[in-house]
Design goal:
The protein is α/β, with parallel strands linked by helices. Helix content is about 55%, strand content about 15%. Strand 9 and strand 10 form a beta hairpin. It is globular and about 85 Å long.
């Protein structure tokens, strides 16, 4: 009896708070939607399906994602909700940072797979934001991938059976999973002995659906799923499909020409040095020349840069071997590199004197200086047993990486908007949180899949945190996006044998995002450069992650410029412009924050009361 009363008090309080959150027209969208979820769970006799429901509420806010499950679920369900909010915002062309997302899910077992709920949660998020109704009798299973596709899942026959028991008439599965293999486990008792027998069976889900009275249908993208659930077709606006515009090519060609000439002059000066590094540098130059002729200027500059690192490495290594006082020579090299980094930092500081009106260029410059400094930190932590050649290789990279920041700053152009430091600080912190959450989600999925995947330092946000501490907010923002794109690509490719479809999808989405930014009067130079670089990659992971990164850059840049103040200033010329104070922006208060805190307090109080009265 007491338990029933507590449950009623909780539900009345919860919806009271949500009513407060949604009472103000300036703060609320609508009261949310309910959607069925299907998942699989482990029982004493093997795998079984589970039919659940979720309520999704979206309000105006600041990009928070709240997940309440009873009982507590695995971290992958929370990760699915976060990606659902991100993808729903991308699909609708809105800024995720302008909303708060609430996912309230009651589950019947703490041992439940969360990724398979991602597709349905994304549909519900879109429906909540558009105030669309969910059709009765429709359910689905499938991960939501950041490229807006529905990813593969396991246990589908069990989920189909659970959905059929709840009068489902249409059940959607990920594309390519109409026929699946399933493992049936049976427990056999023979006297005092208990044995477990497993058998792998191939299941045609359409045939199984007919026996259960359910129509089973494949679904490839979130747009397809939304159409089946709501009857609404999300139209993609018709926009120009050209990525490499004359203005972009005219901007990048002089830089590529400069690096080409510099690289070849360096190789001439080092022609007497016999080294594999020089041979590799010449090979990189030849590859870059081919890209230059094809007008792939950014990809060409990337290879010219790598060749310059190799040449400088060979020169310094040769000179080191000629020196009598080798320790002093290394000390001099460290001083030389630190001088180059300081020069690049000074150039960046001058470029930011009158505020930031080209966040992509400033972000690229900050990222490269941070990488150079991080490399120098590595050099300083090396002990005496380290090989001199390894130290020289790091120093050569740090020196040339610092110089690339100045190359990027030479590309700065007027955007018509000035972005305050407060906006960039807030956004960089938010994107860092997103990167960390999705990284945790990725690690959980890899662990659950049992796959032996070497992800290296994918998901590491140490450098991003250093950038934020240094005040390099634009660089931190874009490096967080890079981390998100890489971790998301790992998630997308789990269980995928042929990534070609994903490559085409990622390319198309990135292309649309770039031209959407252009339709708002923004030239996303960094996004187009990344798109170009993706097209020259021969590795599917690199290609997909770079296209994903290009998309995220374009969307983030468009979103941030929407908050900028109008400015007619051109970027500061580092050599001649006088200092000027940076603009100060007011701190925006989180809409409905008090209501959110009240909701959290109620959730915590309810949990304590439940434990007390159990």
């Amino acid at each position: 009896m007491k338990q029933t009363i507590i449950n009623k008090i909780f539900m009345i309080s919860l919806f009271g708070i949500l009513a407060i959150c949604t009472a103000s027209p300036s703060n609320a969208l609508e009261k949310g939607v309910m959607i069925p979820l299907v998942a699989d769970k482990t029982t004493a006799t093997g795998e079984a399906g589970s039919y659940l429901s979720a309520q999704v509420v979206v309000t105006n806010g600041t990009g928070h994602v709240f997940v309440d499950t009873n009982p507590y679920s695995q971290v992958d369900l929370q990760g699915s909700a976060r990606i659902a909010a991100m993808v729903a915002s991308d699909v609708l062309g809105v800024d995720e940072n302008s909303y708060d997302f609430y996912y309230i899910i009651t589950i019947d077992s703490p041992i439940i797979g969360g990724p398979s709920a991602g597709g349905a949660l994304t549909v519900a998020t879109i429906a909540a934001m558009k105030n669309w109704q969910i059709k009765p009798g429709v359910a689905m299973t499938g991960m939501i991938d950041p490229d807006e596709t529905i990813g593969p899942v396991g246990g589908i026959p069990f989920k189909l059976q659970a959905a059929a028991e709840k009068n489902t008439t249409l059940f959607m599965v990920p594309q390519g999973q109409l026929i699946v293999n399933t493992t049936n486990t049976t427990v056999v008792r023979r006297g005092p002995f208990i044995t477990t027998q497993t058998k792998i069976e191939t299941v045609d889900l359409r045939q199984l659906g007919k026996k259960l009275g359910v129509d089973v249908k494949e679904v490839g993208t979130i747009q397809d799923a939304v159409l089946e659930f709501t009857g609404h077709n999300i139209q993609t606006p018709s926009i120009n499909k050209t990525v490499y515009t004359p203005s972009y090519l005219n901007l990048l060609e002089p830089l590529a020409t400069k690096l080409r000439d510099e690289s070849k002059n360096m190789s001439k000066n080092a022609s007497s040095i016999q080294s594999d590094l020089i041979k590799n540098a010449l090979d990189l130059q030849n590859q870059a020349d081919g890209l230059f002729k094809d007008q792939k200027y950014y990809a060409a500059t990337s290879l010219y840069f790598q060749s310059m690192v190799d040449i400088l490495n060979a020169q310094w290594d040769y000179q080191y071997n000629q020196e009598n006082n080798k320790d002093q020579y290394l000390t001099n090299l460290v001083n030389t590199v630190e001088g180059q980094i300081q020069d690049s930092e000074d150039t960046l500081a001058k470029a930011k004197l009158n505020g930031i009106n080209d966040i992509e260029i400033i972000g690229a410059a900050e990222s490269r200086i941070a990488e150079a400094n991080n490399t120098m930190d590595t050099v300083k932590t090396l002990d005496e047993s380290s090989q001199a050649s390894d130290i020289i290789a790091l120093l050569a990279f740090a020196n040339e990486r610092a110089k690339t920041s100045q190359w990027w700053l030479s590309l700065a152009g007027p955007s018509g908007k000035k972005i305050s430091e407060d906006v960039l600080k807030e956004r960089s912190g938010w994107y860092l949180g997103q990167a960390q959450s999705i990284s945790t989600y990725m690690q959980a999925l890899i662990s659950e899949s049992g796959a032996n995947i070497n992800i290296g330092n994918i998901g590491d946000t140490t450098l991003v945190q250093k950038e934020i501490d240094r005040g390099y907010y634009s660089g931190a923002l874009f490096d967080s996006l890079r981390t998100i794109s890489m971790t998301s690509t790992v998630i997308e490719l789990l269980g995928i044998e042929d990534p070609s479809v994903r490559i085409n999808q990622s390319r198309s989405v990135a292309q649309d995002a770039i031209n959407e930014a252009r339709s708002e009067g923004i030239e996303p130079t960094l996004a187009v450069s990344t798109f170009e670089f993706a097209g020259t990659s021969t590795n599917p992971f690199d290609e997909i992650s770079q296209y994903s990164y290009a998309k995220m850059i374009a969307k983030a840049t468009e979103s941030i410029y929407s908050q900028g103040a109008v400015s007619n200033q051109t970027p500061t010329n580092p050599a001649t412009s006088p200092p000027a104070p940076s603009p100060t922006a007011s701190v925006k208060k989180t809409p409905g924050f008090e209501s959110i805190i009240s909701l959290i307090v109620i959730l915590m109080t309810f949990g304590i009361l439940r434990k007390k009265w159990k």
